[in-house]
Amino acid sequence: MIIETRAYARAGLLGNPSDGFFGKTISISVRNFGASVSLYESPELNIEPQEQDTNSFRSIYHLRDAVASLGYHGGVPLIKAALKRFCEYCDQLGIRLPNKNFTIRYSTSIPRQVGLSGSSAIIVATFRALMKFYQVDIPLPQLPTLVLKTESEELGITAGLQDRVIQCYEGCVYMNFDRELLEQCGHGYYEPIEPRLLPKLYIAYKTSLGKQSGRIHNDVRSRWDKGEELVVKTLQDIADVARQGHEALLNHDTDRLHDLVNENFDLRRRIYNITESNLEMISAARRIGASASFAGSGGAIVGIYKDDDMLNRLFIEMKHLNARVIKPYVV
């Protein structure tokens, strides 16, 4: 029997990136893109590499382009880390895994390194496959923390809980990462929101902008750790944007949500360096009346549009910037 599991891309709608600083966020899963894992029993444990895991190149230019778009590592290190962490989780709970092996392979359609959380999707899909294969139940509130520790402690990736929560819960979720709650329970407060309450949303992204998000967050992290007033206050304000957005969603206040999306980015810009290529997308969207903020760490933006005419204008404006526009499919 072949086990097949999947995890989807995500977009941070409000509160991003306060999740890594005990803040609050609202995120959506984006089912337009996903990572899938296939697993079946076999005599030995095998991880099948994909094209992005290759160490064989046609030329030095092929290597250069591959690294620029895919990074230095493919999905195999992510799967190895997930397997190790899953095994350790079971050991800690005294769960003895059956003596059987498997072959595992992955595929992904999530654009790389544009802030749509492709790496964690592979890990979430891997955990889901392992849970099915070994019939081990990991409580849903705990799974995002386990995925985050796989990335941060095993692979040294700087990240927050937001991406992992929405990829585990799916749909639309309001998250409160209160420090006391995290320290006591190991997870935050996660409230699913009915997707039908969402306004008209778009996502635009440039694949050429890819940067590893951990590098982007490191400077702000060190400044936050030192208690720099501007950074601490700004991240608190960003978290409050999500709190206000939660109220606006429940009250069907689209105009307020529009303003909050813009405010989220404007606050972020106080403490993060924003590249001109990213600013081009934000500015282009706002010029035609749409709201715009980062969907993640950069390379993709998310916002609210008014009607089909505005959406068509978004397609045209973003095409001039070599960016693609999609309507996120949220279930």
From TrEMBL:
The keyword Nucleotide-binding applies. Residues 78-171 form the GHMP kinase N-terminal domain. Residues 247-309 form the GHMP kinase C-terminal domain. Keywords: ATP-binding, Kinase, Nucleotide-binding, Transferase. GO terms for molecular function: ATP binding; glucuronokinase activity. SUPFAM superfamilies: GHMP Kinase, C-terminal domain, Ribosomal protein S5 domain 2-like. This is GHMP kinase. Signal peptide: none annotated. PANTHER family: WITH PUTATIVE URIDYL PYROPHOSPHORYLASE-RELATED.
